[in-house]
Design brief:
Elements: E1 10-15, H1 21-44, E2 73-79, H2 84-96, H3 99-127, E3 151-155, E4 158-159, E5 168-171, E6 173-174, H4 180-193, E7 208-212, E8 218-220, H5 245-255, H6 270-273, E9 294-296, H7 302-307, E10 312-318, E11 321-326, E12 330-333, E13 339-343, E14 346-351
Antiparallel strand pairs: 1-2, 1-11, 3-6, 3-10, 4-5, 5-7, 8-9, 11-14, 12-13
Helix pairs in contact: 3-4
């Protein structure tokens, strides 16, 4: 019998919408409107054209799968902090980090990489002087500047699975200084050394989740339905009710997505799509023999990915903090009791300079 998977309770992340909420909200609203428009066109036309969004027979794209503004972040890793003492210890480690020194080290690593590349170029030019004619003046990203804040941009839309049948879309971060990944790896190493981080064998793939159908519930393989377990429709772009936030959060921060290379070119293995094992089993009043298999909603995203290939979601987003958050986004209600958003509960954080 394989070892039991640990219960995932928290995740380490870089929130990305605290000082760029307007940009993200406008982008998410535009995306939601576009998806709704494409859905309408597809439902009215018996055939698929270049202006419609082709879908699989399983389901069209559920609007409530679009992630709310308050959930946007970059996940560094997940943790199983099942006891208060573990939470306190992880918090203490977070607050002990010398963030400025870690960012500086990431800057120095980038500078060494540049120096190494320049040395290779110089040696090549000695053997072939004509190569020197193609050299360009170094831009701001290749200098060795004094310390500066970590600023990211988010452009394009990608799929974690094959675009023709996917359940997960994201936008990758871009860092002109190339410090993001070295910085994140240094943090992950510290938490792994402290015994807090769940080991991840796949390469780190930082991404901001735009759409994940796990939050829209599942459909029966025997008879797909569009009500997705009767979730409550809510106001606002992507802020609708969630079928099971614990199930969704497990996927969001564990198996959601760190395949080695080419996620848009390949399907994840079958086990990577079954993210509901720890908390997501649905009650089965009929027993095992009468159970209907529940499947994650998948759709054909090729047209949507093409439309958003160069779309700018947010530009010059300053990363302000590193945080430990609880799994499972909490719903935000308005005065009338309507769900107007979602947000992860932050238990501890440290500011970035």
């Amino acid at each position: 019998m394989p070892p039991k998977k640990p219960l995932l309770t928290h995740f380490l992340c870089l929130p990305i919408a605290s000082n760029s909420a307007t940009q993200w909200q406008e982008s998410l609203q535009q995306f939601t409107t576009n998806v709704q428009s494409l859905q309408t066109q597809n439902s009215l036309s018996p055939s698929t054209s270049a202006t419609t969004l082709p879908t699989t027979t399983a389901s069209p794209i559920p609007i409530r799968a679009i992630r709310p503004l308050g959930t946007l972040h970059l996940t560094l890793g997940v943790m199983s902090l099942t006891e208060p003492e573990k939470v306190e210890a992880a918090t203490a480690l977070l607050r002990s980090l010398d963030i400025t020194s870690m960012l500086t080290a990431a800057e120095q690593k980038h500078s060494k990489d540049i120096a190494g590349a320049e040395a290779v170029q110089s040696e090549a030019e000695q053997h072939n002087p004509s190569l020197g004619d193609s050299r360009t003046e170094p831009d701001e990203t290749s200098q060795r500047p004094s310390f500066r804040p970590l600023i990211l941009s988010f452009t394009g839309l990608k799929s974690m699975h094959s675009p023709k049948s996917t359940s997960f879309l994201y936008t990758p971060p871009t860092d002109r200084t190339d410090r993001l990944y070295p910085f994140c790896h240094a943090i992950i190493d510290r938490f792994a050394q402290g015994g807090f981080m769940i080991e991840e064998k796949r390469a780190l793939k930082l991404h901001a989740t735009i759409l994940n159908t796990i939050y829209a519930g599942k459909v029966s393989s025997r008879k797909p339905k569009d009500d997705h377990l009767g979730n409550t429709k809510a106001k606002g772009a992507g802020s609708a009710g969630v079928a099971d936030n614990n199930v969704g959060s497990y996927q969001e921060h564990h198996d959601e997505g760190q395949p080695d290379g080419g996620p848009e070119e390949q399907d994840l293995p079958a086990e990577e799509d079954e993210h509901t094992k720890p908390t997501g089993r649905l009650p089965d009043p009929k027993g095992k023999k009468g159970r209907r298999k529940k499947e994650v909603i998948r759709f054909n995203a090729r047209e949507l990915l093409a439309r958003y290939a160069d779309f700018e979601w947010a530009r010059d987003v300053r990363i302000e903090k590193l945080a430990i958050c609880e799994m499972g986004a909490k719903k935000i209600m308005d005065e009338e009791g309507e769900v107007v958003g979602e947000k992860y509960t932050e238990i501890a954080s440290v500011l970035l300079p």
